[in-house]
Design brief:
9 strands, alpha/beta, 10 helices, Rossmann fold, globular, 321 residues, 11% strand, two-stranded antiparallel ribbon, five-stranded parallel sheet
Length: 321
């Protein structure tokens, strides 16, 4: 399935927007002016592709490196940055920190423990199936938390009930600082799909076209009621697990090799070759992204803190009766 022009440009623009935001948040984290920690996703921006395929009412779960999900699903940068500053104007009124949520866009935050979101994604998929409106769930997970028992429980249940769910493994080679060969006995994580009677595929996670086309196929399958799938994208993060920690376990030559596979530059060249982008277009997209990020930064810095009494609000969901 070829990506159409409007989708391709939107994916590229959101990849640039995400990286620009990521770079700003790295500065904020290293400057000690932001309250929660920042987990950079530099080098993994191809994730934007699958998210761009979702409808507004589809559900999505994300990993530590969730900025590309928030941006591609339609969140405003202002409410994202303000949340990291603990401000009342943040998407969770300053109470969520790294647990970014936007229920109106199908983003319900992150699980409190690694791997805890697998069963949450199943719950979302059950809701989607019961509604019968063709909704789907896109659930991301890292190679590290893929060794949790919750993954296997969730995948088995989702397959038995043919839930509309696509699992995407962001395999960046490290579980915090432990290399994948010390965590997994198999080379391709997608192979575990066979154990749960669902299709699985491993792709180049830095090739946004290949990744998005694979996700397109599996999401279409899910929407038709044919059940879950597992897509593994092999990629690499250029920075430490979390800002402020060491990268000594990451060989410098390995980082440089992966930088040469930059997903944004690769996709940019594809669009140039197709005649969809020119140099002036690239400069404008990058300039617009920088302006948007700086506006969000100023908004966060000037926003008010929550009042003490706000801590007692939003403890319970509104009654359905």
């Amino acid at each position: 399935m070829a990506l159409h022009e409007e989708l391709s440009i939107r994916i590229y623009r959101d990849m640039v927007r995400t990286r620009t935001l990521d770079e700003q948040m790295i500065k904020n984290a290293r400057g000690g002016i932001m309250r929660p920690p920042w987990h950079s996703g530099l080098g993994e921006e191809a994730v934007i592709g699958p998210v761009a395929l979702l409808n507004r009412d589809d559900y999505v779960t994300y990993t530590h490196r969730g900025a590309y999900v928030w941006i591609a699903k339609g969140m405003d940068m202002k409410e994202i940055v303000a949340e990291f500053y603990g401000k009342a104007t943040g998407c969770s009124k300053g109470k969520g920190g790294t647990h970014i949520s936007k229920p109106s866009l199908g983003i319900f935050g992150r699980a409190g423990s690694q791997g805890g979101h697998f069963v949450l994604a199943v719950g979302m998929a059950l809701a989607a199936k019961f509604k019968g409106k063709g909704q789907a769930v896109l659930s991301f997970f890292g190679d590290g938390c893929g060794t949790r028992g919750t993954l296997h429980e969730a995948m088995n249940y989702a397959s038995i009930h043919k839930l509309p769910l696509l699992w995407v493994c962001e395999n960046n080679g490290f579980s915090v600082s432990v290399s994948i060969d010390k965590c997994w006995a198999i080379e391709d994580i997608a192979k575990i799909a066979d154990n749960y009677a669902m299709p699985g595929k491993t792709v180049d996670g830095n090739d946004v076209v290949v990744l998005t086309e694979a996700a397109q196929e599996f999401l279409s399958r899910a929407r038709k009621g044919e059940g879950p799938s597992l897509l593994e994208m092999k990629t690499y993060r250029w920075r430490a697990h979390v800002e402020g920690t060491t990268t000594r376990y990451m060989p410098k030559e390995e980082i440089e090799e992966w930088r040469k596979k930059d997903p944004i530059l690769r996709f940019e060249q594809v669009l140039i070759n197709q005649g969809l982008l020119k140099e002036k277009d690239i400069l404008k997209i990058k300039g617009d992204a920088e302006a948007e990020v700086q506006e969000a930064q100023k908004f966060a810095e000037s926003s008010p803190d929550p009042s003490p009494g706000d801590g007692l609000l939003d403890l319970y969901s509104p009654s359905l009766t």
